[in-house]
Amino acid sequence: MPDSLPLLAALVALLVGLIAGKAWERYKLHGGRWLDRRKLRQTPHYMLGLNFLGEGQVDRAIDELSRAASDGTDALELQMILGNLHRQKGQVGKAVSIHQALLQRQDLSRAEHAYLLLCLGLDYRGGGFVDRAREAFEDVLRLDPANRHALVNLAKLHEEQRQWTEALAARTTLGALRDADTVSDRQIEAFLHNEIGRAQAARGLDGPAARAFADAIERDARTAPAYLNLGDVRARAGDMPGAIDAWERLIAVVPERAHLAFDRLDDAYARAGAADRFRALCERLISEHPENWRARLALARHLRRRGLPGPSVELLFDALAQHPHGLALHQAIWQILAEADTDPALVRRYVTASRDAVFYLDPHVCVRCRYRSTELLWLCPQCHEWNTFVEERIAQGRDSSEAELAPPANPPPSSS
Ligand SMILES: [Zn+2]
Questions:
Q1: Mean pLDDT per 10-residue segment, the chain (416 residues)
Q2: 373 CA to middle of ligand 1, Å?
Q3: CA–CA separation, 75 vs 66, rounded Å?
Q4: Contact status, residue 332 vs residue 300, Cβ threshold 8 Å
């Protein structure tokens, strides 16, 4: 087949050219020193190091990769990884000095330079050197304006420092790099607008604050705190109808967060001489969302204050069926039962209702997967680990909902 010979020759030439080009590139990349990858692969420490890395054994990986690095190769990526591993171990000083030394090299490509600066920024961030970390991430962005890692880290740094405007700028740039507007981008940007507004309101700048809260709602209509804050700013300016409008919009748009506006609305309606609007609001919410125990509790409190303990306690019994563990409900019932002229039949009803309601009489929880059970179990039905159950106690505290876990008698066996 003589016809195919020229084609074959051309292909071989192309391949040789590609290999030679690649090798030349690598030669240039390493300052005229050949990086002998075969040599790297022949040292057992390289393979062992990667193996330990894969198994998550960081100490042994560092050990082996350090030996591979000292076997006479100057592989840049090997050093980079070593630096990152030191950072992971909390050895920030070592990580910084490795990455700084690499940055001194004259043969770095733009991408390598940017990546090393990113590593250095992460080192500084890990060590708590906020300003140096910020400078490093900004340097990365000068070399590579579309570097997402640098943008995310920069945004988080600003958020930790409560520098909301700067954080928003980084988040906006990050969002613009994506093809589509994601829910999470919208949410974060909206919360940042809300924080900007809060900072302005705290300085008495109600006008700009109101605009920032409106921006938050425009960016993501489900930003619940922005409605509350917008209403508060309007109420402070004496615009009660505007405040009521903002709080009612919260309930319309984010009904599962409706209760956040209850106290404000109850008060605002009463001041406007329209206290019945609160009752109507709660009754509407209860009929639309029958599981809404918070609307029942709010209405019960409202009715009790208006001298109607009978309808109030009925609402609380209904709510208890929805949410048997709600201590706020039990307390509201006790308050009514403790009042002077309580019908003993009501007390009996409460005892019966709460006995049926409390289904975790002696709660236990799996420390692995947080599966809950009334009895102590030896094998968790959810994560299938042995002896992982501890007694669950609710931490004392005003509004802490975190459960406090009693330490297990024996540490759970490792699954690895
Ligand atoms: Zn479990």
A1: 45 45 47 53 81 87 85 75 91 93 89 94 94 96 93 93 94 87 86 96 95 96 96 95 97 92 95 92 93 93 90 91 85 85 82 70 84 86 87 60 43 42
A2: 10
A3: 11
A4: yes
**Ion ligand 1: residue ranges with CB closer than 5 A:** 366, 368-369, 371, 380, 382-383
> Domain limits of the chain?
178-279, 305-357, 360-416
- 213 C-alpha to ligand 1 centroid (Å): 42
Global pTM? Answer: 0.71
CA 116 to chain centre: 27
Q: Find tokens 């008698």 and name the residue.
A: 409
Question: Span 178-279: which CATH code?
Answer: 1.25.40.10
**Residue position matching structure tokens 């690895």:** 416
Helix, strand, coil percentages (3-state) for the chain, rounded to 5, are 70, 5, 30
Going from the Cα of 368 to the center of ligand 1, the distance in angstroms, rounded, reads: 5
CA–centroid distance, residue 379 to ligand 1 (Å)? 8
Reduced to 3 states, what is the DSSP secondary structure of residue 36? coil
Cβ atoms of 68 and 78 within 8 Å: the answer is yes
